[in-house]
């Protein structure tokens, strides 16, 4: 099954889930869900700054339900197509339909966890770099205090502290032409 056909079967799964939601809403409210007033779903919370009756929101209308249904079908098809493209050997129509059924719930759960994962990953990835830089800065500061240097004493960043011999860079190591070592 190619990814496009799996995406279409996933859309059918999403449409089935949307139909179940509409059926449940009709049974509960005894009218079409886009005609349901907000105060019949959740009792309105009384706010002191609003006069009575203004807290009622209008029914969302059929256009809002069409947009929500189309977005659900898009999510179902996209997720099913992505899974089918990633695992083409193990995708069959039943698997594609089941992925389409649960696609919206899966995406909702993943988006709930993403901020937590990003925070943990960025803390681990950047934490090591930041800690290393802070340790280097503390080490340099401690070495400067031990030697009696202050940041304004004129010591250059690349020069070693006074009292430590500098390596002699003018003398090149002697090496024989075969590359087997050198003579001293």
Explain what this protein looks like in three dimensions.
The protein has 184 residues and is mostly helical. It is 60% helix and 0% strand. It is built from four helices and no strands. The radius of gyration is 34 Å and the shape is flat. The model has no long low-confidence stretch (mean pLDDT 76).
Which helices and strands appear, and what pairs or packs with what?
Elements: H1 3-29, H2 38-41, H3 61-86, H4 93-146
Distance between the termini: 72 Å
Return the structural class. Answer: mainly alpha
| Low-pLDDT segments, ≥5 res | none
Give the H and E element order: HHHH
Question: How much strand content do the residues show?
Answer: under 5%
DSSP summary, beta strand count: 0
The overall pLDDT average reads 76
Dominant shape: flat
Gyration radius, rounded? 34 Å
Largest sheet: none
The number of distinct helices, counting runs of at least 4 residues, comes to 4
Could you estimate the helical fraction of the residues in percent?
A: 55-70%
